[in-house]
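Quick look at the format.
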Amino acid sequence: MGDKPISFRDADGNFVSAADVWNEKKLEELFNRLNPKRALRLAREKKSNEKADKEEK
């Protein structure tokens, strides 16, 4: 487990690190559920960045 802090035990009683449980996809879903406008903002920023990249070329 390295230097990851132990956060809780799983159903089998083994220690589980939060870093092992909360992967990028699950965090993204959580952030979008807690802040519904976040997904819209990220899409808007992505579109803006793509437009800026096209204008540079």
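Next, a different chain entirely:
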Amino acid sequence: MNDRQISRLFWGAKALLVAALLYVAIEAIWRPSEPAPGLKPKAVSGGERVSNETGRAPDSQPVADYSVIVESGLFGATDQTNASPALSSPPAGPLRSAEALGLRLVGIVAGGPATSRAIIEDMATQATSPYRIGDAIASATIQSIESDRVVLIHNGQSKVLVLHAGRAAKGPAPFDANDVGQANPQRPLEAVQPPSAPSARLGYVEDLFRSATIEPYVKNGRTEGLRITGLEQSPLAAIVGLRNGDIVQTVNGQSLDSKQKAFQVLKKARTQSTINMQLLRNGKTKDLSLDL
């Protein structure tokens, strides 16, 4: 063999070697390598195990299980059968009269709990004044004011004062011997709506003086007050506490000798908290007080 033939064989061998290397590289890239025999996992046999807890609804508890919580008052609840009522019911049966305390109900101003007034006369002092719910009078406390009566609490017992006429809104009142000398016997006092403001309550007194018949009361040639008549049909008299034939002598300490003087005194009373009147009724001195 000459040198040319040897050179051709050498280059042919190189070409075959390069081709073999390329083949091995391509096989390594395109075919995934298999794990070593020692790392191959064993075959898994058998079916999938389903958990007994998956998808299972919780057992419902009987209602009796919760009764322990309710009965124990865990959340502050109370047994309805043992709960005391929120409001005490009025005592059953007729109530005893409170007139034994020396009181007499002569008028009622109808309204709500905050605005209702009871015109009560203290027969011992012959003073007539308006009272609210909760006010104390003659060792008793006013519990409620109704359309024709007032309930009081005295020594833990409920007692009642019935409107003096006894048959309010049902007919004329029976003749009262104490009303002798009046033009007409006094009729039952009607329940009226109370004024909404103190100025309106004072206006009631002014309206009463305007609508009533007022004449000077002269004794021994001297004017000692103003006689008021024409109150039989006036519900305003119940608020003020005046009766037909009363003689008003002073208002807030000021003597009255004319109707004009009365209005001047009432105008000054706008700055006062109460109106105090001194009058003669059936020859006896009486004091009236009206809160403004």
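The first strand starts at residue 96 and ends at 97.

See the schema section for token definitions.
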